[in-house]
Structure to design on (817 residues):
């Protein structure tokens, strides 16, 4: 997450676009064999957006030696490359030359497609059956009689069978599953209604009866499946977008064997005692101790500390930290499963509470609704038995009650609103993992933010540029362009493009700074004690932890630089909007009290707790939950992950650690923090529409049920009532799209690539 | 009544033909990249080799 400060294009230009690309061992590890010597590698290329991109990428990759084929998928923004032989072709270099940032994607396992294609198949079959049966039913309603009517009924019964098997199977399985666990969901009344309607219609057909409800049972399935499929497509899109983000955790590491052989080993096979080589720009794969080398580590994603930490031989390092400046040799002290990362996963699983206890609105409604409806149908049966003594008539009317109350509108009421809301959020760059997340978000009354990486970008910004001699600043910027250290990147942004200082020699001293010579003068940019060796020490703490960076000429300090963590775009506005919406905002951070105080002050946050351990964040959230609050947690670091799991609902930026992104309910891809109030706003509106829709469905039943109980429902009335109520519910859901469009657009990220590049290790 | 004997099977057959066509398209992956398909129509076919979708 430290790869790209605003204005880091230059740093990238200097470092070369290929610097961040994974090693060929890593590519090989992430590819999958297709038999023979053909391998397939999936790359995520977020900046593909048009036909020209497709052509450029496919043409360029196709002409690389040993590449069998390259195929771009524009919808998922991915490229799958098939290649031959043992040597990995240089895709990243080729894509980099074309100007596309790519990152490795774990090989696709074709399980997710199965649900979707099953749903689409079911929709197709149900649609075909519903159309044809409706055609036959219209003929019956228009006056077909005697043997013609019987023929039409038989045909309908026949056509309905595959629809029930294919489309109904989804509902029958879900209903059976719910009943087995002693729960009630919306699929139970649907399954009961559909199967009873079919059975009764079949009995009627055999006995040359007048009324058959084949059309009702099949078109009910058709409508409901449309809602369910849209819901699935929406979630799948969000999931694909989140998975397409680059992976921050290391896949493996180069192990230095005792006999001097270097070998790339997957993370899972790293054992304590192994010596690992960590190049600059790589993440530490497992916990361990540094054996040799000096460097700076970016710990922001692990501990929330914003200032990079200098490390040298003997320092203990945690898995997940990013090695910034120099190569390191380290000795692993724990296997991956005992490392910091695994500990976070364990804490998160232990903390998972608020979410698993939550029951969705639809399930809560159906728990009340289904017994009432089934009881009403049963009482109708008893009533007609007593009144007329004709069990066939009593049965027919009771089933008509079930069909008319079958929760078609109710089954659509919730998913259709959530589909529209998720789409609205998707357009604003906010991915929603599932519908229940929006229901939970609408209920929150407290928001807890992490500091580093969430409220701030975790990227330093020069604060005293105005008080520095411009000539010195330009020299410092030119020097800084040679380093990957976050401070250097912040400084490099001040460089002028035209006349650069010419240095004879530039050398980076990992852990200390950069040294360069120019016309007999030695310039140093870095730690005060190292760069200004002639100056008296002291004054180091004047600017806090971020103030110890100086530019020195021949050992005399000529400029001091003070940095602070840059706040995320619109962070202040987002906090204000949340406060206006009646949400209490709090900040929990692993950073120092001083850094937290400054950030909280500038953002207008009154409550903050600094220097928290991951478990401390969880405890704070659990304390809030015990006090009756519903807490939204927004965080990005590994140390936030347990808290993300513990909160009622959680959000993470695209730059978050991998497990954080997986754990969060919402992931926002753009830089602006206004995504948080926007998601809250849309979720609350969606919640209102869902309640309206449920009310509409209940009012509809209040009219329809008495008619059904009195025995006046014919298949024609059932078909009209069912379609009408579904259409009303859908139309109401569409209002969300209309009102949301009218609302001001959230400001898009200044540069789309910012987030993408920032997400890149 | 006699017309129905052949008209209904014909109607059902045509419907089933459409359905199976859709299912075939679904299975052969034609719905996997809808945005890409819309753009690919603009890419010149001459530049492609015989393998089809891959340009060269």
């Amino acid at each position: 997450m430290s790869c790209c400060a605003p204005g880091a294009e230059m740093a990238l230009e200097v470092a070369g676009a290929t610097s961040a690309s994974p090693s060929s061992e890593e590519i090989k590890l992430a590819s999958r064999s297709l038999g023979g010597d053909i391998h397939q590698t999936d790359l995520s290329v977020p900046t593909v957006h048009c036909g020209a991109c497709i052509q450029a990428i496919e043409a360029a990759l196709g002409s690389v030696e040993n590449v069998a084929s390259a195929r771009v998928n524009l919808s998922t923004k991915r490229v799958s490359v098939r290649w031959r032989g043992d040597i990995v072709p240089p895709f990243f270099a080729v894509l980099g030359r074309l100007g596309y940032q790519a990152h490795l994607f774990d090989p696709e396992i074709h399980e997710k497609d199965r649900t979707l294609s099953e749903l689409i198949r079911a929709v197709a079959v149900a649609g075909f059956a519903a159309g044809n049966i409706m055609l036959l039913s219209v003929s019956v309603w228009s006056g077909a009689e005697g043997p013609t009517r019987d023929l039409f009924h038989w045909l309908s019964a026949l056509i309905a069978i595959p629809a029930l098997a294919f489309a109904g199977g989804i509902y029958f399985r879900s209903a059976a599953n719910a009943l087995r666990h002693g729960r009630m969901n919306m699929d139970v009344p649907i399954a009961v209604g559909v199967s009873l309607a079919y059975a009764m219609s079949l009995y009627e057909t055999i006995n040359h009866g007048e009324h058959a409800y084949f059309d009702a049972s099949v078109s009910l399935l058709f409508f409901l499946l449309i809602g369910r499929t849209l819901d699935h497509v929406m979630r799948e899109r969000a999931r694909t977008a989140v998975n397409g983000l680059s992976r921050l955790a290391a896949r493996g590491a180069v192990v230095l064997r005792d006999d001097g052989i270097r070998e790339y080993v997957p993370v899972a096979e790293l054992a304590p005692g192994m010596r690992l080589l960590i190049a600059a720009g790589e993440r530490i794969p497992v916990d361990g101790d540094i054996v040799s080398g000096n460097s700076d580590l970016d710990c922001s994603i692990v501990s929330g500390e914003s200032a990079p930490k200098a490390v040298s031989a003997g320092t203990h390092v945690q898995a997940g930290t990013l090695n910034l400046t120099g190569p390191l040799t380290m000795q692993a002290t724990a296997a991956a499963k005992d490392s910091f990362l695994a500990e976070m996963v364990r804490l998160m699983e232990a903390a998972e509470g608020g979410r698993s206890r939550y029951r969705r609105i639809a399930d809560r409604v159906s728990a009340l609704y289904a017994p009432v409806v089934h009881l009403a149908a049963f009482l109708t049966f008893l009533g007609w038995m007593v009144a007329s003594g004709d069990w066939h008539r009593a049965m027919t009317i009771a089933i008509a009650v079930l069909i008319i109350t079958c929760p078609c509108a109710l089954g659509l009421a919730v998913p259709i609103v959530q589909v529209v809301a998720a789409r609205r959020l998707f357009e604003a760059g906010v991915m929603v993992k599932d519908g229940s997340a929006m229901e939970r978000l609408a209920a929150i009354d407290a928001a807890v933010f992490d500091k580093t990486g969430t409220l701030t970008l975790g990227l330093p910004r020069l604060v005293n540029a105005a008080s520095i001699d411009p000539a010195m600043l330009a020299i410092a910027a030119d020097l800084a362009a040679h380093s990957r250290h976050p401070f250097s990147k912040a400084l490099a942004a001040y460089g002028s493009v035209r006349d650069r200082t010419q240095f004879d020699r530039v050398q980076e001293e990992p852990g200390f700074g950069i040294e360069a010579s120019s016309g007999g003068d030695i310039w140093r940019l870095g730690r005060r004690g190292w760069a200004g060796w002639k100056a008296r020490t002291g004054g180091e703490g004047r600017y806090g932890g971020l103030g110890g960076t100086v530019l020195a000429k021949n050992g005399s300090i000529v400029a001091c630089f003070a940095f602070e963590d840059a706040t995320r775009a619109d962070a202040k506005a987002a906090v204000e909007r949340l406060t206006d919406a009646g949400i209490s905002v709090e900040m929990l951070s692993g950073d120092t009290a001083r850094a937290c105080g400054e950030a909280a002050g500038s953002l207008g946050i009154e409550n903050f707790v600094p220097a928290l351990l991951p478990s401390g964040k969880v405890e704070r959230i659990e304390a809030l939950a015990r006090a009756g609050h519903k807490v939204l947690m927004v965080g990005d670091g590994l140390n936030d992950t347990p808290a993300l799991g513990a909160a009622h609902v959680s959000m993470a930026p695209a730059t978050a650690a991998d497990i954080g992104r997986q754990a969060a309910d919402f992931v926002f891809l753009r830089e602006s923090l206004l995504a948080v109030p926007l998601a809250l706003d849309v979720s609350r509106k969606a919640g209102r529409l869902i309640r309206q829709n449920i009310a509409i469905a209940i009012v509809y039943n209040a009219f329809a049920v008495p008619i059904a109980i009195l025995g006046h429902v014919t298949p024609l009335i059932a078909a009209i009532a069912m379609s009408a109520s579904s259409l009303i519910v859908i139309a109401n859901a569409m209002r969300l799209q209309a009102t949301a469009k009218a609302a001001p657009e959230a400001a898009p990220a200044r540069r789309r690539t910012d987030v993408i590049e920032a997400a890149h290790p | 009544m006699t017309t129905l004997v052949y008209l209904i099977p014909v109607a059902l057959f045509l419907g089933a033909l459409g359905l199976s066509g859709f299912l075939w398209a679904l299975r052969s992956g034609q719905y996997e990249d809808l945005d890409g398909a819309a753009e690919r129509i603009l890419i010149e076919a001459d530049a492609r080799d015989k393998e089809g979708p891959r340009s060269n």
In short: DSSP finds two helices and no strands in chain B.
